[in-house]
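Appendix B, record 7
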Amino acid sequence: MQIPLDGARYFYIFGNMEINEAVAALGALAQESRLSVFRLLVQAGRDGLSPGTIAERLTLPGPTLSFHLAQLRQAGLVTVRRDGRSLIYAADYDGMNALMGFLTLNCCRGDVDACAPSCQPAAPAIAARRA
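Structure tokens (predicted):
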């Protein structure tokens, strides 16, 4: 059973991610510092991190980090909230899962169960491909 990209199931499961949104998200992640920021925020969980903590852990200057966070936020991959006087950034798991769903929607000839996005580390697979 193959599910077309514009099928009702696509919109029900993954929201309204269109190809332009996917391109924006992938473009945001296609830069080393932004990818590092996003991965750090994914690791931090829903509690998120302050910009100072992110800058310290990744040794990024404040203005550079601010630019990268804005790009990730605009791409729908990061959220920000105010905690007192601080801003806290966190990975937008809905945005991340929508992107993963968009990328894997038609894999395995539409067998959603065989290709369901998951939060499993893929490091061994990446390392094996590099060898």
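Remarks on this record: The chain has one domain: 8-130. The beta strands are 78-83, 86-91.
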